[in-house]
Amino acid sequence: MLTQTELKQNVASAAIEYVLPWLTPDTILGVGTGSTVDLFIDALAPYKDRFLGAASSSERSSARLEALGIKVFDLNQVQGMPLYVDGADEIDQGLNMIKGGGGALTREKIVASVADQFVCIVDESKVVECLGRFPLPVEVIPMAREAVARRLSELGGKPALREGFTTDNGCQILDVSGLAITEPAKLESLINDIPGVVCCGLFALAGADVVLVSTQDGVRRLDKNPS
Ligand code: 5RP
Question: What is the pLDDT, as a whole number, of residue 77?
């Protein structure tokens, strides 16, 4: 029986196989955040001379990339990227995701928006029928925290402040439990529209394009638009 760390290691290796054909001397790769991505970054390092560098979704990933000799570009210097590789906290069959367990949701959404393709790398524990068992992270401007929390309660959620945590953007996170997310794109828009919300951890308006899922029987691939 493979442990969750071994499953994450396997999907990180599979992601390298997926990414290699895209690497050219001009390629900038989008890199997400989390323990699965940490393993992906480590596995990417031996190929650092095959591509130009990375744009990252967190200070944590940037530090890891740079420590391994991979150049990190400010997103403002980047015109486009073929791929953005990141993990998820939950993903459903429609390739909608909950992200932000590591608190990097806003930068994840921004960097992903510049890439042609979102490649999600998860172990099988993250694949769900319906999103919402994992509390939905919502990044908020600190002065708006209580006002946003009241609006999230009206939507049926139970918001809890992530104590002692500040995002890379200097903001706070409300983790919202108790939401049955039957219409992820609609809920994403609703939450994004609350004044004071910086970003909501639903990735449904733009979900994943490809998912690599690590299972006890190997890594399987799901495509948003199977050909
Ligand atoms: C960070 C994220 C991560 O992708 C998500 O939390 C999954 O993390 P891990 O790979 O450690 O399970 O959204 O903000």
Answer: 96
